[in-house]
């Protein structure tokens, strides 16, 4: 074959692909966006007309006509091409008719012939309409111009006759093209058709499935557009519909084109509309004629797996037979591979193998959609190479935003014919924002949570209205108040593990201020809170924000409030919506390291899972790398590597704090570059001074309902001053020493009063004296 012969089809294909790319981009735009673009073009044309002195009416009409033709070209390119042929042919023939027979009906008859030919060409499927129109009108033009030299009337009838003859010829060609296409894509085997009939009869008790209703592509896409949120899903489904349309146009134009059937993986948390979108996908493929029905068969593991080997294949085949011609939707598909207790799931593997075989054998008559969580589905698809290759189209479903959840509640409320109190939507948005900020909305079920809230609020309203007595009005029976929504919200979330009231930033910082001493630490925590708050404000306004610090190193001697400040920091992060809860999980080396290699990673991951949503505080973290072991500490290194990976993977749901002595923590960070880079925020805790230790002891007494008298306070100050001056306070534990001293002094007072054998006043029962303090110091010194 000559190079020039190869170049021409390639050029046409390239032009066709470029046009389809433009169409795809165009229909990915929403209808509102397209209307805005059309309006802008129209306004721009009118402004240009004013500046250039054109006729406003002519400019408006011409621009409107061109915009309409552009929309026609992108939406129905075959029809646009036919219109172009009809207009061009009519213009030429009108000029020729005026020249041959002026002031006659000949131009009108020729225009009518062009319109009728174009309509007839579009009724003939399997051949390109505009080519049919051009062939018929071209032949009619040649014959009519030849006959017109003898008789104008005969030229008209000749033109009509030749056009009819060409249309008949193209109809024959269409039949031949249809047979060729049917031969290239044979129908399913007789056994498969028999299985479908048997399965339907068994399921419906012998009754025939009702004929599916007529559905257009616009109707199916309109149903998708009416769903709240899911913008990335809508864009992807629109792209799929555009590619199906492009494939259909190529096939009708006579180009080789495979059936655009495919299987899907729907990834996302529960309640995000996966089942609803599956029904829309079924309707789209049905509207294009690629599926026999728009029905969806929903299934789970129990619908595929049998009670013994061999039964699973039968059960899976029967399920697929019921779904043939439509869509099979398998929710929580990852449950088909159950690796519990380390044993291979032979039943699930049998179901997967059967599913893969039928997905390939019946790909022209069936769409299978596997759905589930992103992480679990990724592991499931990786378990079998056939799954990844046959289910290559993935659709990611995002979590609903608070505003979208409010919209879902409004929609559900409208369907129930109920009303919301005027201030209820704003209050509802605040409630949804709270669970969204905590990262709980996925576990609560997204739209399912919104539905449960509507139903529970309606029940709370009914209880309130009936309990009030009397005869309630129609508005009372239909109006849900903010109090009803709040009550329902509290009932639902109270059943959720770990749900607590969100602390405020002011409360968290007030807890910090109540601590004695630690002024450098307080300033640094306040600076951290300010930086986090500003970063959040920048994000809310769409401004770029630097990465937020998430992991910290607390260095300092024991008893200096590191654990307490960790709890304050957890409350700060929770108040700013950066953590779902303010809880702190405390751990040490024993909580991370297992008894053998491999067990450490499991143990560390389980610990991190418990801390997700809050703070993981690892005290004496330097013990994770024990240099005293011969050959290195492989267990500690495994724990550090696992911790580093989870600290990065779950950085949006976890704060990790490593705590310990300054010098030992320096050596720990130096052992692994990842530690130094991920834990780059250091908070240094100084030793307590004598005055601060005295204040701590007084605060502890106050919290217990006790007090030190003046002499006791002087003794406390002298004791703390001496241990600080001698450099003993760090070894004694700083704040822990103050607590021990208070507890021993209180115990000495109780022993002293009990030994008197009589009664004691309230003041005596709550006052710690100098003698009690000295007794406590002696006891601690003896230890």
Automatic annotation (TrEMBL):
Record domain AAA+ ATPase: where: 260-401, 548-689
Positions with biased composition (Basic and acidic residues): 195-207
Keywords recorded for this protein, A-Z: ATP-binding, Membrane, Nucleotide-binding, Transmembrane, Transmembrane helix
Gene3D superfamilies xref list: 1.10.8.60, P-loop containing nucleotide triphosphate hydrolases (3.40.50.300)
Membrane-traversing stretches: 36-67, 79-99, 105-123, 130-148, 154-172
Pfam families: AAA (PF00004), AAA_lid_6 (PF17866)
Superkingdom field: Bacteria
Region (Disordered): 189-215
SMART domains with a match to the protein in the record: AAA
Family: Belongs to the CbxX/CfxQ family.
Protein's name in the database: AAA family ATPase
Taxonomic lineage from the root: Bacteria, Bacillati, Actinomycetota, Actinomycetes, Streptosporangiales
């Amino acid at each position: 074959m000559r190079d020039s012969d190869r170049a021409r089809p390639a050029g046409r294909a390239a032009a066709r692909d470029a046009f389809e790319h433009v169409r795809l981009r165009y229909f990915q735009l929403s209808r509102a966006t397209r209307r805005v673009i059309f309006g802008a073009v129209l306004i721009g044309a009118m402004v240009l007309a004013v500046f250039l002195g054109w006729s406003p009416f002519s400019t408006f009409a011409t621009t409107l006509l061109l915009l309409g033709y552009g929309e026609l070209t992108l939406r129905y390119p075959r029809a646009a091409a036919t219109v172009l042929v009809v207009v061009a042919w009519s213009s030429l023939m009108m000029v020729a008719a005026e020249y041959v027979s002026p002031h006659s009906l000949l131009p009108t008859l020729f225009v009518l012939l062009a319109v009728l030919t174009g309509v007839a060409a579009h009724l003939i499927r399997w051949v390109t309409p505009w080519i049919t129109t051009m062939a018929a009108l071209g032949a009619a033009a040649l014959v009519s111009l030849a006959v017109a030299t003898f008789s104008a009337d005969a030229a008209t009838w000749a033109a009509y006759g030749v056009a009819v003859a060409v249309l008949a010829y193209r109809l024959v060609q269409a039949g031949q093209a249809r047979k060729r296409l049917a031969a290239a894509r044979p129908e399913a085997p007789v056994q498969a058709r028999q299985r479908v009939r048997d399965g339907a009869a068994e399921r419906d008790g012998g009754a025939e499935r009702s004929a599916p209703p007529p559905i257009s592509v616009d109707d199916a896409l309109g149903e998708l557009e009416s769903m709240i949120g899911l913008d990335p899903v809508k864009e992807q489904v629109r792209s799929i519909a555009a590619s199906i349309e492009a494939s259909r146009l190529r096939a009708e134009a006579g180009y080789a084109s495979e059936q655009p059937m495919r299987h899907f993986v729907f990834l996302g948390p529960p309640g995000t509309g996966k089942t609803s979108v599956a029904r829309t996908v079924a309707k789209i493929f049905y509207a294009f004629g690629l599926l026999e029905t728009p029905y969806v068969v929903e299934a789970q593991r129990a619908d595929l797996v049998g009670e013994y080997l061999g039964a699973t294949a039968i059960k899976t085949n029967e399920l697929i037979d019921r779904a043939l011609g439509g869509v099979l939707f398998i929710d929580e598909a990852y449950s088909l591979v159950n690796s519990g207790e380390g044993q291979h799931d032979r039943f699930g593997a049998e179901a997967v193998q059967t599913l893969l075989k039928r997905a390939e054998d019946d790909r022209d008559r069936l769409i299978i959609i596997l759905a589930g969580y992103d992480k679990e589905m990724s592991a499931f698809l990786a378990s079998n190479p056939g799954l990844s290759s046959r289910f290559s189209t993935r659709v990611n479903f995002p979590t609903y935003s608070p505003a979208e959840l409010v919209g879902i509640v409004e929609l559900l409320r409208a369907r129930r014919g109920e009303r919301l109190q005027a201030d209820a939507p704003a209050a509802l948005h605040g409630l949804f924002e709270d669970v969204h900020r905590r990262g709980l909305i996925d576990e609560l079920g997204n739209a399912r949570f919104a539905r449960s809230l509507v139903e529970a609020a309606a029940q709370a309203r009914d209880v309130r209205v009936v309990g009030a007595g009397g005869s309630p009005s129609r508005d009372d029976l239909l109006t849900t108040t903010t109090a009803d929504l709040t009550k329902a919200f509290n009932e639902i979330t109270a059943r959720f593990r770990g749900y607590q009231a969100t602390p405020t930033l002011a409360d968290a910082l007030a807890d910090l201020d109540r601590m004695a001493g630690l002024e450098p630490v307080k300033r640094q925590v306040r600076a951290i809170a300010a930086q986090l708050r500003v970063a959040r404000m920048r994000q809310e306004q769409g401004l770029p924000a630097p990465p937020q610090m998430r992991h910290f190193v607390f260095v300092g001697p024991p008893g200096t409030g590191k654990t307490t400040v960790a709890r304050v920091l957890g409350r700060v992060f929770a108040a700013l919506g950066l953590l779902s809860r303010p809880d702190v999980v405390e751990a040490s080396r024993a909580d991370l390291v297992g008894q053998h290699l491999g067990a450490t990673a499991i143990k560390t991951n389980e610990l991190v899972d418990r801390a997700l949503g809050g703070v993981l505080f690892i005290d004496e973290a330097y013990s994770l790398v024990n240099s005293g072991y011969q050959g290195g500490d492989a267990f500690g290194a495994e724990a550090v590597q696992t911790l580093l990976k989870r600290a990065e993977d779950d950085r949006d749901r976890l704060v990790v704090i490593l705590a310990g002595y300054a010098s030992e923590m320096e050596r720990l960070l130096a052992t692994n570059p990842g530690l130094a880079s991920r834990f780059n925020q250091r908070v240094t805790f100084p030793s307590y001074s004598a005055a601060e230790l005295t204040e701590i002891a007084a605060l502890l007494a106050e919290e217990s309902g006790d007090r030190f008298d003046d002499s006791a306070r002087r003794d406390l100050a002298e004791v703390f001053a001496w241990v600080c001056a001698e450099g003993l306070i760090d070894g004694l534990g700083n704040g822990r020493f103050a607590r021990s001293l208070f507890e021993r002094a209180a115990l000495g007072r109780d022993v002293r009063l009990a030994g008197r054998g009589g009664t004691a006043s309230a003041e005596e029962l709550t006052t710690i004296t100098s003698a009690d303090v000295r007794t406590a110091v002696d006891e601690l010194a003896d230890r």
